[in-house]
Structure formats: structure tokens, C-alpha cells
Amino acid sequence: MPALDFMTVSIIYITAIVILLVGYLTAVSSKDIVRLLIALELMFGAVFMSLIPLFSVLPDPAFGVALLTIFASGGELLVLSAAIVIHDRRKKSILTSSVSIGGDNV
Amino acid sequence: MNVEMLLLVALAGVTALSTLGVLLTKDNFYAAMYMTLTLVMVATIYAFFSIEPVFVLIVFVFIGAIGIVTVAIAATYRHGPERQFSVFWAIPIVVTAAVLCYSIYTYVLDVPVYTALMTFTTHYSLKYSIENFITTEYLLLLLFMTSLAVLLMLSVVNIYRSEN
User: Fold this and answer.
1) Nearest residue in B to A63, CA atom
2) How far apart, in whole angstroms, are the C-alpha atoms of residue A84 and residue A73?
3) Distance of alpha carbon A17 from alpha carbon B33, whole angstroms
4) ipTM of this predicted complex?
């Protein structure tokens, strides 16, 4: 497989960094759990984006990491959707401010 | 810049803009829609490099299942959150982006035009074939991941039942 040139790799990594930073900012500014879920999905999107250069040098491990990312994202969605339902049932709210244990003020 | 490079820059730009839409919108539903658009653009960049297996995985599994469930949850629990962080955090982000852009700009200026043009005409097609992936090691990895996913699902169902 041909290696990617510096410019292409730069564009890919800068886009991945932008997606990751926006994901972080969305996560720290989120006031409800749904927004947190969206932020985590964005971070997984950044992981996918940063995998593209790996496909030019190590395609099979890159595909394995892509599969692992999809499994991890599916597991995260499962756990968070269950957490949203349970939290809503207990507190009648999905606001992160209604979580009384753990965490810190940003 | 050749046409392929311009197309890649355009795709990356649309991806970055749709990502910013997630941060700027106050409605969870629209944030989820912008997130889905971002993931579609990431899949399109994979298609740009001719990595079709991952394009199919992202579009049909990541977006088709996980993304749509997120959109459904966001549509159910619509809420406009308030910002918890100061807008001054944008300053270091802008500075970092400027440094990155300047470093790329100086790199392009340093390289002679002919060399740059020859570099830009490199092959964009990565042509990944899934046949090489189907080996014992990777099948074992898939088996382990599937087992872990089933275990996770059972745990979540157990927690949900105990809540009821």
C-alpha cells in the first residue's frame, strides 16, 4: 500500500484533533447525560479519523482497531443509555447536576 | 494543489464545521444530527481513500445503529444546556490552531513547487482487502469482543431488572 504524504496526513490529524477537542469541550460543557453521550460518540469519530494513516502502513491491525472501536462504542452506548433511563427514573431528570456523588465542578 | 487534495481539504472542512455545530447548538436533537453528519463525513473520507470495508462498517454499524439510537435518545430527552466553561478557553485553542496552520504553511513554502506537485500526486487509494484480515488471531479477537459485548449486555439487563 502506498504511504500518504505529509500534507494529507496533516489534514487528517488536524481534523481528528478538531473533532476530539470539540468532543472534550462538549463533554465539559454538558449539563445533561445525553449531551455527554453525543460528546463520547464524537470522540470515537476522532479515533476513526486518526486511524486512516495507519491503514497505509499496517492495514490489518488498523482494521482490528476499527472493529475494537465499534465494539467499545456499542458498549458505551449500551451502558450510557441504561444509565440515562435509570437516572431519569430515580431523579426524574437527566441533568448531570442532579448527580450527587463523585465528580467535580469545572 | 491538485483536485484530490482540494476535495480532501473540503471534506475535512465540512467535517470540522459539522463538529462545531455539535458544540454550538443548544438543542440535543440537533447536536445528535450534527454528530451523525460528522460521522458520515468521516466515513466519506474513508471512501475517499478507497477503504470500503471500514466505510461500510461506519455507515451501517456505527451510524446506522449507534448513531441512530443516540439521535432517538436525544429526540426523547430534548434539553438546551447552559455553558459551564468560560469562552476564554477559545484563546488557547485558536493559538494552537494558528501554530499548526503556520507550521504547515511554512512546510509548503520550503518545498520546491515541482517536488510539492509530485508529492501531491501520490496515490490516494489505499485499497484495503478484508481477506488478509480473516486469520485465526483476528477471529479470536472478534470472538473475545463478541463475548465481552454479550457479557456487558447481560450485566446491563441485570442492573435494569434489579432497578425495576
Assistant:
1) B54
2) 16
3) 20
4) 0.86
